[in-house]
Amino acid sequence: MGQGSNSVPHMLFSFRRAVVAGFCALLGTQSAHAQTAAEFKSDSVNIRKIYDEALLRGQSYENLRYLCTRIGARLSGSPQADQAVQWGKQTMEKLGFDRVYLQEVMVPHWVRGAKEKASVKSKKVGKAPTMNICALGGSVATGGKLKAGVVEVRSWDELAKLSDAQVKGKFVFFNRPFDDRHIEPGAAYSGAVDQRGRGAIEAAKRGAVGALVRSMTSSRDDLPHTGTMRYDEKVTKVPSAALSTNSADWLSQALKTDPNLEFELEMACQTLPDVKSYNVVGEVKGSKRPEEIITVGGHLDSWDLAQGAHDDGTGCVQSIEALRLLLASGLRPERTVRAVLFMNEENGNRGGMKYAELAKAAGEKHLAAIESDGGGFTPRGFGVEAPLPVVQNVQKWAPLLAPYHSDKIGPGHGGTDIGPLKDQAVALIGYDGDSQRYFDLHHTAADNFDQVHRRELELGGASMASLIYLLSKYGL
C-alpha cells in the first residue's frame, strides 16, 4: 500500500505524539529512577540518535553476512567455530572497544558424519516417500543399517501404558505436535521439546532400539530440525533422530495402515573428546560506575545444518552493534558494558557457565545481563527475569521505547547463556522479537543469511542499545 506526499510529516507528528504520550505516562508513575521532564526529553533525543545511527549506518547486517557466508555453520569443536572466535575478536578490536579478550572453555565435540538415511518397508502401504531425517545432536550412531518396527506415542503416559513386548526391539516414535493454540510459538516449543531431550532415555528404558522424534515446529514441510538430546549413563544409549513434520505425518498415517511396517535408519555420528574453545568478550568501561557491569550477548556456536543466521548469528552481531551504537552516538555508558559471544549454547552451555564462574571468582557486580537468542526479527520488547519490583522498574522505561515498538516489557525468560548469572545479576533480560517465523527455521538447513531482513536486524540492535543506555544511566 503506497503513501501520499504527506506521509513524512504524518510520521513525524505520530512520533512526537508518541513521545508526549510516553512522557505523560511516565509522569503518572512514581518512577524509581526519578526522571525529570528534562531528563525524559534528553533520553528521548539520545535514543533517537541511537536509532538514526542504526538505520542509516548500522553494521549488524554486513557483519552477519561475513559470519554466515564466509564462515558458516559453527558447531562447537569445529574449525568454523574457531574461525568465528577469531572473527569476533578482530571485529570488536577494529571497533576500538576498551578491552577485547578471550575466555578459555572446554566444549563438546560431536560430529554428524555422513548424511543420514532412512526408509520405510511395507507391503500394505506401498512405495514410501523419502524420509527426511537428521540425527539429534549428541546421538550415537546406528552402527550400520538399523531395521526395526515402530510404535507411536504422543505423551509419556502413552509410552507408560504400553507393555514391554509392544516396545522392546522397536523404534519409539514420539509424535507430539506443537500446541498451536499458544500465541507465542516459544510456549508451544516448551510444551513439545521434552520428547526430543529425553526421548532416547525413556525409549531405551523400555527396551527400544532407537527414538524417532517429530521436529520442533508447527510448520508442515520437509525440513528436519536437529537439536540437543540427552543420555543417562545408567541407561543404554540408543540412536535418536528427528523426522520432518511431513515425514512424521506420513509415518503416523502409514502405521494406521500397517502397524507392522519396518523402519530402516543409518547414522554415522560420533562424540569426540572435548576441545578447547573460547568466549569472546568486548568491553567498554563505564565513565562513572565502572565496577557495575551490564552484559549483552548471544551465542557464537550454531548447529551444523546451515549458517546459523537467526540462531544465533543475529544475537552476536546485535550485541557487538549495541556497544558500537552507544559510542557512535556519543553516549559513553556510565556503567561498564560487555558484549559477550558465548560458545557452546546449543549442546552444553559451557560458555555461559564459564563466564558466570569467572565473574563470581573475580567478585564482579553484574547489574544486568541481556541476551538476544530468538532470531533477528522485528523488535517487540524485553522479557525480564527478576523480582517483580525490578521488572516494574524496567517497565517504566516503556514510554521511551514506545515510538520504536519495543515497549512490550514484562516478566520473562532471560536466556540460556546468561542463565548461570541468575544469582549474580539484579536482572536477566531477554530481547524479544516477533517470533512467529522463528521455529520455521530453528535448527534447520534453512537458517541462512538470506532469511534475515536488514531493517529488522538493525532495529533490534538499536532496541538493545537503548535499554543498555537507560540501565547504564539509571541502574535498577
UniProtKB/TrEMBL annotation:
It is found in: Endoplasmic reticulum; Golgi apparatus; Lysosome; Secreted. Coiled coil: none annotated. SUPFAM superfamilies: Zn-dependent exopeptidases (SSF53187). Residues 279-459 form the Peptidase M28 domain. InterPro entries: CPQ, Peptidase_M28. Keywords: Carboxypeptidase, Endoplasmic reticulum, Glycoprotein, Golgi apparatus, Hydrolase, Lysosome, Metal-binding, Metalloprotease, Protease, Secreted, Signal, Zinc, Zymogen. Residues 1-34 form the signal peptide. Homodimer. The monomeric form is inactive while the homodimer is active. PANTHER family: CARBOXYPEPTIDASE Q, PROTEASE FAMILY M28 PLASMA GLUTAMATE CARBOXYPEPTIDASE-RELATED. This is Carboxypeptidase Q. The lineage of its organism: Bacteria, Pseudomonadati, Bacteroidota, Cytophagia, Cytophagales.
